[in-house]
């Protein structure tokens, strides 16, 4: 059996940082659309944020994801790549052979499961900081900042709800991420192989960018219904708590807003998924090559 390779974790860290920088503004729009009311559509949401909060409104809660999602992405890519490598070695496959669907599925599901351990608290704090200003937009009552920043937000949640509170919405996140990462890594791998004419040559940067973007758009687009539920469960509790769990959130959301509620933010989710994933995979692959080249010198 082979050993764990740290290069994948390091390259995943850099890829995660790149994805946050590229995708956070649209992530803020997505969160407002899914949790808030009165925005109408994506463009209206963008203009409303600009009008009420200026450009800085798109970057609310970014410092915490920038510091932590890089670590989260490091775990996801590191676990995926090393699991894939170990499975291939266990089954006696050559490193030159393409990964098959079974290996890719197992590695993707494992990555999705483990990602919630780190990603749950990160997403929770990010969502709370992104949506706490929605009161000024909906006009229900004067705006009142609940959290002064990520550390204050974490302290408030731990004080009020304990450790379990940091994993609010974890069930919905598992239901989103396990199939989501299958629709992320598997299409990316096959698209890279399909676009690259010479199967013995590494994919070009353009190929990685296109394949990564398409995989991200597919993954995030199809994950939107459960992403809506996850966002609502995580936002629940900023001012009041009304959901008892995943099933109750699905039921209340459907009864109050109909079937279309589960597709809120699907456009911005898909566009954001393309941009973030294109940046993530490209940075990951280029960083991995650079690290391996440095180690060989």
From TrEMBL:
Database matches in PANTHER family: MITOCHONDRIAL BASIC AMINO ACIDS TRANSPORTER-RELATED (PTHR45624), SOLUTE CARRIER FAMILY 25 MEMBER 48 (PTHR45624:SF7)
UniProt membrane topology term: Multi-pass membrane protein
Gene: slc25a48.L
Protein name, entry field: Solute carrier family 25 member 48
Spans of repeat Solcar: 3-86, 99-194, 203-290
Molecular function (Gene Ontology), one example: transmembrane transporter activity
Entry-linked InterPro entries: MCP, MCP_dom_sf, MCP_transmembrane, Mitochondrial_Carrier
Family: Belongs to the mitochondrial carrier (TC 2.A.29) family.
Protein's cellular compartments: Mitochondrion inner membrane
Keywords: Membrane, Mitochondrion, Mitochondrion inner membrane, Repeat, Transmembrane, Transmembrane helix, Transport
Organism annotation: Xenopus laevis (African clawed frog)
Location, primary (coarse class): mitochondrion
Gene Ontology CC: mitochondrial inner membrane
